[in-house]
Design a protein that fits this description.
Low-confidence stretches: none
Oligomer: single chain
Radius of gyration: 19 Å
Shape: globular
Order of helices and strands: EHEHEHEHHHHEEEHEHEHHHHEE
Distance between the termini: 22 Å
Mean pLDDT: 95
Number of strands: 11
Strand order of the largest sheet: 3-2-4-7-1-8-11-10-9
Strand content: 15-25%
C-alpha cells in the first residue's frame, strides 16, 4: 500500500463499566474498555502497534501500555482536555495512513466520582496556577464560571434564553431514557432545569454534566485489516483540530468556540457538508457547549442556536439527533469525555444502539456522523467526520 494513501477505519469500540463504579481503579477501567474493544473488533492484541492515552500516570501512555501488556512503536499522549480523543484520532489516522502504524488503540478510564466519595480528591480539581493562569486563579475564576460567562455573553448578543439552554438538558435526558447504560434516565422538564440549585449564573445543576466513573476505548486500523474484523468498518473521512486560548482575556469572542475552525477543516477534508450529517455527538459539559458548537459546526447560523435547539430537534427522533446516548449531561462524564463521543457515533453508524438507534427515512441506518470534542473552557477542539 502506498504510504499516505491507506484508508483508516474504526474497527472496535467499547465502554468499560460506567456510572457508579466504587471497586475499580482507573487502570482496571482502561483494561476493561481495551479488552472489550478488541473483542468487538475480533482483533488480537498482538496486532496493536499504537497506543494513545492521556490523563493517567506520570508517563502516559507508557504506563497504560505497560499495564495492558502492549509494546507499541507509535504513541500519542496529546492532552488538550475533553477534545483530546478527537485530536488523538486525527493523529492516529494520519499515522496509519502514512504507514507509521497499523492498528492504534485509544483508551481512557477514570474514577472521578469514586475518588471524591473516598476522599482521594476534592470536587474542584485545579488546573494549576502557573503561566498565564496565574492571572485568573487567585480570583476564584473557576472552569464553570468561565462557561457561565460565555453563556451570558451569547444571551446578551443574540437573545438566547434560559429556556432554550434548558431544552438542551431536557432533550439529552430524553435520549438517555432510551439508553440502559445511562446514569440518569428519569425524564426532566424545562421547569426542573430552571428551578434547580444555582451553580454559576446562569447554570443551575441540570445545566451541568454529571460526575461519573467509567472508561472507553476505540480501535482504529488500516484498511487491509478490515476484512478480518468481526464488525463492519466505520471510515474516518476527515478530521480537524484547533486551539484558541487559555486565559479569558485572550479569547477574542466568547460566542465562538474553536469548533468553528476544527469543524470547517474536518468537513472540508471529508468532502461533506453539515446538512448531510445524520448524527452529531458533541461535548456537553454544560448546555451552552452544545448550543454554540452546533452553530460553529455550521448546523445553524451564528446566534440562531437558541431557536435551533428548540422543539425536540436534538432527540433520537428529531431532525438532527445529538448526543444520542444522553451525553455528559445524563449518560456519563468521567472527565475527558471525548472518547465516548466517538464510540457512540460508531455504534449509531453500525446500527448497534438499541432503543436509541437513529433511523433515516424508510428505516435506513445513518450514513454520516460527526464527533466534536471540546477541551478546557473552549480552549481546544477536535472534530472527526465518520461514515459507513
Amino acid at each position: 500500500m502506498t504510504p499516505g494513501k491507506r484508508k483508516v477505519a474504526v474497527v472496535g469500540v467499547s465502554l468499560s463499566d460506567c456510572g457508579r463504579v466504587d471497586d475499580a481503579t482507573p487502570y482496571a477501567l482502561h483494561a476493561q474498555a481495551a479488552r472489550r474493544a478488541l473483542a468487538d473488533a475480533g482483533m488480537d492484541r498482538s496486532l496493536v502497534d499504537g497506543v494513545a492515552s492521556a490523563g493517567l500516570g506520570t508517563l502516559p501512555p507508557v504506563e497504560v501500555a505497560e499495564y495492558l501488556g502492549l509494546r507499541p512503536t507509535w504513541v500519542d499522549s496529546t492532552a488538550v482536555g475533553g477534545a483530546t480523543w478527537e485530536v488523538m484520532a486525527a493523529h492516529a489516522t494520519d499515522a496509519i495512513a502514512a504507514g507509521h502504524a497499523n492498528a492504534v488503540l485509544l483508551v481512557y478510564g477514570s474514577t472521578a466520582r469514586a475518588d471524591i466519595r473516598a476522599g482521594r480528591r476534592t470536587g474542584t480539581l485545579s488546573f494549576g496556577a502557573r503561566g498565564p493562569l496565574q492571572f485568573e486563579v487567585p480570583y476564584g475564576h473557576t472552569l464553570i464560571a468561565k462557561y457561565a460567562m460565555a453563556a451570558r455573553r451569547h444571551m446578551h448578543e443574540y437573545g438566547t434564553t434560559l429556556e432554550q439552554l434548558a431544552s438542551v438538558a431536557v432533550q439529552a435526558r430524553a435520549n438517555a431514557a432510551l439508553n440502559p447504560e445511562a446514569m440518569f434516565r428519569t425524564p426532566i422538564t424545562t421547569d426542573d432545569v430552571l428551578s434547580g440549585p444555582m451553580i454559576a449564573d446562569p447554570f443551575t445543576k441540570l445545566h451541568c454534566c454529571v460526575r461519573s466513573d467509567g472508561g472507553a476505548a476505540v480501535l482504529l486500523a488500516a484498511e487491509e485489516y478490515v476484512r478480518d474484523c468481526r464488525t463492519p468498518p466505520v471510515w474516518v473521512l476527515g478530521t480537524g483540530e484547533h486551539v484558541s486560548h487559555t486565559t479569558m482575556s485572550e479569547w477574542p469572542d466568547f460566542t465562538i468556540s474553536p469548533a468553528a475552525v476544527s469543524g470547517r477543516l474536518a468537513f472540508e477534508r471529508a468532502g461533506v457538508r453539515p446538512d448531510e450529517i445524520d448524527v452529531a455527538e458533541i461535548y456537553d459539559a454544560f448546555t451552552y457547549m452544545t448550543l454554540v458548537t452546533l452553530e460553529d459546526l455550521g448546523f445553524c447560523a451564528k446566534g440562531e442556536g437558541g431557536a435551533f435547539v428548540e422543539k425536540g430537534r436534538l432527540t433520537v427522533g428529531g431532525e438532527l439527533p445529538v448526543n444520542t446516548d444522553g451525553g455528559g449531561l445524563s449518560a456519563q462524564h468521567p472527565g475527558m469525555r471525548g472518547l465516548f463521543l466517538l464510540a457512540e457515533a460508531v455504534r449509531q453508524l453500525r446500527g448497534e444502539a438499541g432503543q436509541r438507534q437513529v433511523r433515516k427515512a424508510g428505516g435506513r441506518l445513518p450514513e454520516l456522523a460527526v464527533a466534536s470534542g471540546t477541551g478546557g473552557w473552549f480552549c481546544s477542539s477536535g472534530t472527526v467526520v465518520l461514515g459507513r
